[in-house]
Fold Phosphogluconate dehydratase.
Amino acid sequence: MTARREIEAVTARIRERSRVSREAYLARIDEAASKGPHRARLSCGNLAHGFAACAPQDKAALSGDTVPNLGIITAYNDMLSAHQPYETFPALIKEAAREAGGVAQVAAGVPAMCDGVTQGQAGMQLSLFSRDVIAMAAAIGLSHNMFDAAVFLGICDKIVPGLAIAALTFGHLPAVFIPAGPMTSGLPNDEKAKVRQLYAEGKVGRDALLEAEAKSYHGPGTCTFYGTANSNQMLMEIMGLHTPGSSFVNPNTPLRDALTKEAAKRALAITALGNEFTPVGRMIDERSIVNGVVGLNATGGSTNHTIHLIAMAATAGIQLTWADIAEVSEHVPLLARVYPNGLADVNHFHAAGGIGFLVRELLDAGLLHEDVDTVWGPGLRQYAVEAKLAQDGTVIREPAPQKSGNEKVLAPISKAFQPTGGLRVLTGNLGQAIIKISAVKPEHRVIEAPAIVFHSQEELQAAFKAGELDRDFVAVIRFQGPKANGMPELHKLTPVLGVLQDRGHRVALVTDGRMSGASGKVPAAIHVTPEASEGGPIARIMNGDVVKLDAEAGTLEVLVDAEEFARRTPAAPDLSYEHYGMGRELFAAFRSAVSRAEEGATVFGNALAG
């Protein structure tokens, strides 16, 4: 079954645009795959080093070249709630590999930082760059050339995109991504948000705020709101990189462990040593990327993926643009309401039918490419299922429920929450920007008000506490782009702007920084490009200039005479104070080399373009 003509048209344009770079990429990975199992080409000294610490049975197996060896790339650390469950995964994977007649080794650990911990802190300026560091760290692990396939243990914001870039760089190898699942539901996200706003207004103290936060983020697993981490999991499944039905099963449960072992065995089954060879670089193609964009829009997913998906696709020689994402959004209805786009969390979404229900609804409507390859085999219809635990401890799958368990959380196509997706591109005399509108009420989607310009979120917070912001205005937070300071997320603005909107003021945000999956009820034009550090138009805005953000029409403009605006000298503050401390001095080369947001904000540049 093919997708509707509108989706096919976007895919065809991407395919034609990418023809040269995609052909070059495929030629490279085909050459690598043609050399067969690489251990046979290692010297005896190389190989002896590679299995020196293995158990005797694994050494014996790896001495030949007919037993598949599975490389484990892990983002485990026990500070991140989402990654703490990965502590036990390597042992499960090694056990599963032996049961399947193979071997598994931890090839590398990669860094994994938590945006929740670093919000509003200097470390947040390393967050986006950590994606490319993760890709390079994973590449170092796989460069030992010991492996026939790889499994990737990562779940949160920059970790999964970084691992995906690495997997596609080693596109001649099969790759399976293994999730750890969300934490069980705690304090509802909307109640937590209310306490944050009360704290911002000075109506409750730090003790009350910390209590609310700790009740919300209370155990192992991903945060339960639909931010980048859980958007990652949706993407990996709808793009066929997870085993079916595995994304949102809670950690430390028998089903989670069974899914982990099954994924390891599946990775071994699709190596070049078997009959189902599925190199990830050929498996992920233009159709898979478009399916990811469809899923992102249908669920109101994280705005970060308007950056990450472009960088991931480029690694495979596929040239995705913001215009493609926006066009898909015009044809894909919003089917999920998960906080901040609603009151539910991802556990409620999963219980209502989850990814399986979503995939079936989108396939039946012709909004997904069904004829794609996946780690589970050909065809995306296999993902319209629900995974369950059999009596013998293995995984069984049943068709996804025909009806949503809660249509306020997960709607069928016939009852979509809105006819278009959650993401939109804004264009105008301020350049280009992204806005997430799935959580913004229609009456707040068009804002025209005077600008108040800030160069940090701390400046805005200080103005709020001083009582200077009780009015209609557009907050312009600039010099937050990748070249300026690494493009941090600006979550500390959310409670303040939410309070002002609740007071009846018409407010909006315009920034060259990020807001991520937590973009909520206040209209926010983010990722503005060209950024201020490049002398982009946002650097010429002055206090009092009227800015119009129209999310319905898709425009972002400053209403100033064009000749006068062009004559202005762009602001150029000294940003050196932001380039030292918390490791920021080590990333000067990244700030210098990074591409624009609409190009994936990557330091790899032409290397990804082929």
